[in-house]
Amino acid sequence: MAQLTTQEFEQCLTVLADGGTAEKLRDRLVRLNAFHSRRGLGSFAALAARVYQLSSGLRRQVPATRAFQALWAEHIGTRLTEEAGGKLDKLADEINAQLETDGSIKEGCEPALEEKLQAYEDVLARKVGGLASRLDTLQKAVPSVAEKLRAKPLLDVPLDPPEDREGHDHDHDHDHDHDHSGHHHH
Predict the structure, then answer these.
(1) Splitting the chain (186 residues) into consecutive groups of 10 residues, what average pLDDT does each group show?
(2) Measuring CA to CA, how many Å separate 84 from each of 48, 60, 71, 88?
(3) Could you say which of 26, 56, 93, 158 is the most buried, measured as most Cβ atoms within 10 Å of its Cβ?
């Protein structure tokens, strides 16, 4: 797993807040046992520093890491369609195919890696926006891939129009929102 910088991690939290306040996000993290004392955690910077420190930049499997990952997976997952999810899985496999087991890029595979990476970010950005797409991809990336990502500008692409999701009862299954789509084509 790539090491996110503290700045990138702070951006992750602003994405999760989705226009809401740092306090509101802090309370969600407390409910998920990320930490217990709310003191001094009124800003995204302070919140990021605390969660980053507790989780060692998400490298340690501790409650703070799990809480962040649960909120992140929900944020991304509820915005992905089944079709987009399938494309991303396939592209992730194709990206991994360009890498050695130690995470370095295979000889001569750089152009293919760049192309697949661009395609991956593009699919994701059309669902979650350029910043969230970059941050999600960085969270999954090995250092050699993270370096490539950081050298690229964020994607500024239009979001796909929401799919027609009528006839689905959303109230009770927000965590499992992956399978709602792909059935309505207009």
Answers:
(1) 84 96 96 91 95 93 96 96 96 96 96 96 96 95 94 93 59 44 40
(2) 29, 29, 20, 6
(3) 26
With a CB cutoff of 8 Å and minimum separation 6, the contacts of 45 are 10
| Straight-line distance from the first to the last Cα atom of the chain, in angstroms, rounded to the nearest whole number | 38
